[in-house]
Amino acid sequence: MWRVIISLALVQFILLGPTYGTLGYFYSPWIREFGWSHATVAITTTAFLFAQAAVSPLVGWLLDRIAAQVVMTAAALAVIAGYLWGSTIHSFTPMVAAFALIGGGVSASTYVPAMMVAANWATDRRGLALGVVLAGAALGGTVLAPVFEVILVRYGWRSAMLCLTVPMWLVAIPLILIMVRTRPSTGVEARSVREEAQGLPGLEVGAALVSLPFWMVVATEFIYNVGYQGFVHHLMTYYIGAGFRAERAALILGLLTLFTTVGAIALGGFADKRGVRTVLIASLVGLGGGVAIVLGATSRNFGTLYAAASMVGAGLCVGASATLLPAILAEALGLKRYGTLWGVIRLLGWIGGGLGPFITGRIFDRTGTYTLAFEFCAICMLIGACTAALIRPAEGVLRQPVAAAQ
Fold first, then answer.
1. How far apart are CA 250 and CA 368, in angstroms?
2. Is 301 exposed, middle or buried (0-12, 13-18, 19+ CB in 10 A)?
3. Helix (H) or strand (E) holding 52
4. pLDDT per residue over 45-92, tens digit each?
5. What residues does each domain of the chain span?
6. Per-residue pLDDT tens for 316-365?
7. Fold of 2-183+197-388
8. For residue 367, which of 9, 252, 261, 376 sits 20 to 30 Å off, Cα-Cα?
9. Please, where are the H alpha helices in 110-202?
């Protein structure tokens, strides 16, 4: 089991961490070069996130029917194509299209399939396993995003885009093809992915879609993404506006991804012992606090301290939230149609995520400050904690057996 989990984490390290983690890094150079407004540059992130949303149900449906390694490889190639195209663009509309392609490819090659595969392989210590997978993405942002920022500052954003694709070719795609499999072998010959799913515990799609637990998971995912995506993708611009140099801001942002790694693993494992729902609620409340603390970064004497404290607190809590949302889906609705249901939830969640950066950018354009924008993001987390408290296993979902493959 753990060989598959570690392989998924490495794929996240290369494909998800540096792509998602550097979306906001392009804002300042594009504002300088093209004269776009804060809300306008944020539309590229909205396109990235909306594309993730749009393809998620299709990806989930495919994962219930086609081998995960096939879906992930094709999607990784789309990510590479998007960055190669983006590096040549000089106008706004094609840039939005390029980031939509990248976003769709990232969704289909990382978070949606990786969480499904990990949930299938780890039925006993699911919180820890999902935490390790997410930690790979967070560590990718921690390690590669500052390197990306250095390349961007010294050689320009176009060269930085090209550099992002190199480890995708050399490491991520070979690893997917060699190591990733949808679920452990059942020992029965010639069974398709679809046939294997029939024997798993859980609700069919129709029954799940009319259940309260499904819609509470949707509500939590949606409002969490509105708040967090609206917060994280404006941080680089916020820190630069607060007087931080770009390189220093990138290092502070590295704390967010570093402690996301710690939170994903530590709190994911803790949830296996204390309960997924309890830890999820606490993490969302803590994330709201971490978002609020960042407003102190404008302080002349203690700005760096407030910024660092915010990144540590928010990182610990977002690591748990992003890990436990897919975990609580398996607990509430089972694994039988996990791919399809997770894809639908990601569609609705990423619609919220796509709105988040635009909403906060619009609030900034209207007020000239990020104060009200980040307060809005913190309130979203508290609302998400309330909806998470209402998630319970649906009637008819059986306790899942421990996987035999280890």
1. 23
2. exposed
3. helix 38-63
4. 889 978 887 888 888 888 888 889 999 999 999 999 999 999 999 999
5. 2-183+197-388
6. 898 777 788 888 888 888 877 888 888 888 888 878 887 898 899 899 98
7. Growth Hormone; Chain: A; (1.20.1250)
8. 252
9. 111-121, 126-155, 157-167, 173-179, 193-198
